[in-house]
Design a protein that fits this description.
This protein is α+β, with helices and mostly antiparallel strands. Helices cover 49% and strands 10% of the residues. It contains 18 helices and 11 strands. A 7-stranded mixed sheet has the order 3-4-5-2-1-8-9. A two-stranded antiparallel ribbon has the order 6-7. The radius of gyration is 26 Å and the shape is elongated. It starts with a strand and ends with a helix.
């Protein structure tokens, strides 16, 4: 039994990137041997085991054969006679097809180290085109390493275009598509993700509204403000505004886009709330007290105060001026929460009169902001 560190951990170590997750390949072992040594099997599709102490994944060396559509349409073969080189040959990019032995020796049968040096995202073999998910993965790696100067190798881009010309992308699940997009949005150069998909002729198929982001000055201005602390849902909301705000029935279309993508509810809600709030925050000083109160009620900010910070962040990214409207909105909500219905009831207000008095006081407070 021989154990090798593989994939992203080896790649990022060579790039002097922090290594968060480690994946291991075991050559020359059987499932029975792994279990005997205390490893816990997971799933039924792959020969993957969890280390009894570290919790890291150890996979038996395996080969694969295309047997259907999509990224799940593969049959896998794992046995003690599968070599490390055979296992690495099924990986997507050469920079992900390197391994490191227990003695520290680098195993690089497909030129990954050279492609790191020349900053190329290059496929390992023609089998790359059998998995449509790799179109998204390559675009995501491009977004991750664009600031280092990495680009997609021309032959690899041609294979991505070939995949896009078939119906393979349509067989990807929405959940997996969103997962790749969400991860790409968190990268240092997220717009590169969409640019590469456009070059691969895949953007229109996968994210039709986001074709607007390609060569878009406003989108670039927004992305330039992203920091390590900018939440992914905030980035998504700001970019969605660029893509949807000029459309008719924009809220309905954005809501459907998010539901089709299977985004988290909070992500979808923030995107829609940003679409609603940003135009009003831009003209906050000329907004009537009634409209300010209507906005707060529409977004349910008094009952859901946790919605305010991400909304402030997304609309701040969109603002062309140093307006403090987001801060004024937060302060206004805080003042409105100070209205005490129980105290008003003790003062004799009941039924419709109570509602009218609360509304009157709310408007009076809104006029101060």
């Amino acid at each position: 039994m021989q154990i090798y560190l593989v994939g992203g951990a080896v790649r990022d170590e060579l790039l002097n990137y922090p290594v968060y997750d480690k994946d291991w390949v075991v050559v020359g072992a059987t499932p029975e041997e792994m279990i005997k040594n205390g490893y816990r099997p997971v799933g039924s599709d792959f020969p993957v085991f969890i280390h009894p102490k570290t919790g890291e994944e150890y996979a038996l060396a395996r080969t694969e054969r295309k047997s259907g559509k999509g990224y799940s349409g593969f049959q896998y073969h794992a046995s003690p006679d599968v070599t490390l080189e055979e296992d690495l040959s099924r990986r997507d990019l050469t920079i992900n097809a390197m391994a490191k032995s227990s003695s520290g020796e680098l195993i690089d049968p497909y030129g990954g180290q050279n492609d790191l040096a020349t900053k190329q995202l290059r496929h390992v073999s023609p089998a790359f085109s059998e998995d449509p998910l790799r179109v998204l993965r390559v675009a995501r790696f491009a977004a991750r390493y664009a600031h280092l100067g990495f680009t997609v190798a021309a032959p690899t881009l041609k294979l991505m275009q070939a995949i896009a010309s078939t119906d393979e992308l349509s067989h990807l699940t929405k959940e997996r598509i969103w997962q790749e997009m969400e991860r790409a949005l968190s990268e240092r150069s997220p717009l590169t993700f969409f640019n590469v998909l456009e070059q691969a002729n895949a953007l229109e198929q996968l994210f039709p509204p986001f074709t607007t982001l390609v060569n878009n000055d406003k989108a670039q201005q927004i992305a330039a403000q992203f920091t390590d602390t900018t939440e992914t849902k905030v980035r998504f909301a700001a970019l969605c505004y660029v893509c949807f705000h000029t459309l008719s029935e924009a809220q309905t279309k954005l809501d459907q886009f998010c539901r089709d993508l299977r985004t988290q509810n909070q992500t979808r809600e923030l995107a829609i709330h940003t679409l609603i709030a940003h135009p009003q925050l831009q003209c906050w000083s000329s907004l009537s007290a009634e409209n300010k109160l209507a906005l707060i009620k529409q977004l349910d900010l008094l009952r859901r105060p946790e919605r305010l910070p991400p909304l402030q962040a997304s609309t701040r990214l969109l603002s062309d001026t140093n307006t403090n409207a987001g801060e004024l909105l937060a302060n206004l909500c805080e003042e409105l929460k100070g209205i005490n219905p129980k105290a008003l009831m003790n003062d004799g207000y009941k039924g419709a009169a109570l509602g009218e008095e609360i509304a009157k006081r709310q408007i009076a407070i809104c006029e101060l902001f």
